[in-house]
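Worked example

This section walks through a single chain of length 338. The input is the sequence exactly as stored; nothing has been trimmed or padded.
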Amino acid sequence: MTRFADPWVLVALAMLPLLAIATWKWVWPRRTRVRFSNLRLFQDVQPTLRQRFRLLPMVLRLACLALLVIALARPQAGARSTTIESEGIDIILALDVSGSMLAVDMTPEARGAVQRDVSRLEVSKQAARDFVQGRLSDRIGLVVFSGQAMTQCPPTLDYGVLLQFIDQIQTGQMEDGTAIGTGLLTAVNRLRASDAKSRVVILLTDGANNAGTVDPITAAKVAKAVGVKVYTIAAGREENARFPVETFFGRQYVRQYSPIDEKTLREIADIGNGLYFRATSPENLGAIYRRIGDMEKTKVETKEYVEYSELASGWVLPALALLLLEGFLAQTWLRRLA
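Given that input, the structure is written out below as tokens.
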């Protein structure tokens, strides 16, 4: 970016046309002239090249003055630099990948939306993708659990890699079951050594704890002891939802009872200083993640610095060159008698 440090000096440019007019009207007529009684002898004489350029010294002088005025206004070029200071949040997404997540009861609520069989797992994966893409400078990791738990991706700022891990999530990665306590404790352990100002676990499940060696309430107390906040989300609309079954005739759907232990999930959130949510549709789950994102905002401060360098010399040197050229022409090729 460029600017003038003293832009008011540019007002002098408006005076240059007045100076040219004054020179033409009053200075030039007073110069010494040779008078002839009869000009008939000169009627057929064509003006020479020197006569055609007789105004060139004045034009050069005015151009010189214009460049000097611009130089006095101190043109400057600025180099802009931006510094971003942020207080990042470390977040672990703990996602249930048990077989019950294949239920297809989370259909879109919006009118006109395509009503197709999408599993709870696919809806949860899409909501997790949207959540990750909405963050700026937070380290986010991924833990998946069913009968056991494992870290799919440690906390990272490389959201591209994290999104690839989310895309690869599927059921059957581990023995089936719902080890909520083990999944939560695995996520908390990932954040235990973090020095982030805020550490958060977002745990999503559609069932009740029926596997693992750690009780969910015990895991929640560990989270509280190490300063990790826990949000819990229960995914699913019906406890007796449809599940896909591959048969000789292709994919069929059967009803299967799969209760959600909302009481335990509420208690986990209360102990972990977070909140409990129930998601029954893609829109609902997306809104829940956005609400959590609004509550866990990263403090970002942007500072801009502009460093200016003087450009006046780039105008003064051409002005001096024009002045020397004007003086040279006035004393040689365009020299006048008086």
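What to look for: The two ends are 48 Å apart (CA to CA).
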